[in-house]
């Protein structure tokens, strides 16, 4: 087995971990990871903004189904951009998916991974959320077509992903189960590589799968069966950004309304060693000292998010990046764990920034609607038909569909907010512009050190160099390096 990566860059947000960041990290000796969330929307909106650097059209020119690539360009590309007009919508996720919907998702994931892999021979990964089950088969196929080396998945129990990746690599029709509330029947979403590549298409290289977990108990459960066993684990602690696992045991909130995490929620590296598979520690491990501690405890390395989110190559809007750095430098930034914000029901880290959806005034002023719909829940209505609801949609609509009004209280539209983080927020027909919603890790130690070391900002290579304790460029030596990936 090749040497595993020592530093994995987190697959953050919607387009924060974009292809430029992942490519820079991989070229520097870490494992660069693109975010696989909502890439169909990201691709469509980049094209509608004129694709000024031509990157998306170059990637689509390499897509193995030229006809599909042409249809996507014809539908979404706008030379010169939108001139302030609303973005054209993309098909919503459903249990029964149209060929056009899957075609866009496959091509979008291909384009992001393909772009990240250009100009070097190092490994590249992609990160998905288990909670967005309906998107996974088509998205994963697109990533495999581009030669992705690692697939990472968290926010749930990704027991079906090893089989999905094996089936797709073999060219077989493949799918995953979709949870439909109120139904005893099994619903599945499938994708067929033959429909993309044609009958008799060649097989693909299977990537390694890393399951993102919060505790050794889940790791041991997944590892005990060959059908669910990943090639390794990323073990995220409760200070990590994005979605967090709920605290173990009964949920209690502190005076600020945040979930109380305790010693049971901190993974024991010795227990992870006992699972017998490689693992990486995440959430507060972005400093040289914590990196060394992780390695000494038996981890293959660490996963780092926030430091890379603020790197020059990330997709985060430059103004948001500057505001975050200013607030951190002044000691004013507060990052809280909100138990109600995410429609998924998972606690979610939110950075308090005035003018974003963390601001109560902005939240109250936003017209509630669910138009991107990645986090909506399928349910069975009284007539036996599959429908969809989201706790961030208008409360009356959510209740009419069988939702509990209490679940809608405080729920935020993560889809639109996270897309706005990277400068792709929607402009409504009435002129309303979707505000950003910034997620960030709660441990700011690494950011403070980097800000002192690089007051004008930093690159991905400088993050890698600092974490590994080297003074040269991040690609100089093996301390954060990795070999070429070969799958079994």
Taken from the alpha-carbon principal axes, the silhouette is: globular
Tell me the strand percentage band: 5-15%
Main sheet characteristics:
8 strands, parallel
Q: What is the CATH topology descriptor of the domain at 7-317 and 442-468? A: TIM Barrel
Radius of gyration, taken over Cα atoms and rounded to an integer in Å:
21 Å
Provide the structure class: alpha/beta
Low-confidence stretches: 471-488
How much helical structure, as a percent, in the residues? Answer: 25-40%
Classified by CATH, the class of the domain at 7-317 and 442-468 is Alpha Beta
CATH architecture of the domain at 7-317 and 442-468: Alpha-Beta Barrel
Task: Calculate the mean pLDDT score and round it.
Answer: 91
* Beta strands, count: 14
Give the number of helices: 19
Spatial arrangement of strands, main beta sheet: 1-10-9-8-7-4-3-2
Oligomer: single chain
State the end-to-end distance: 10 Å
How does this model look, in words?
The protein has 488 residues and is α/β, with parallel strands linked by helices. It has a domain at 7-317 and 442-468: TIM Barrel, CATH 3.20.20. It has 19 helices and 14 strands. The chain has helices spanning 19-28, 39-48, 55-61, 66-76, 99-116, 136-145, 161-169, 193-197, 216-223, 269-275, 288-296, 306-309, 318-329, 360-365, 395-400, 405-408, 414-420, 445-453, 460-468; strands spanning 7-9, 32-35, 124-129, 150-154, 174-178, 187-191, 208-213, 232-236, 279-282, 301-304, 335-338, 348-351, 377-380, 386-389. Strands 1-10-9-8-7-4-3-2 form an eight-stranded parallel sheet. Helix 6 links the parallel strand 3 (124-129) and strand 4. Helix 9 packs parallel to helix 10 (269-275). The N and C termini lie close together (10 Å). The model is unreliable at 471-488 (pLDDT under 50).
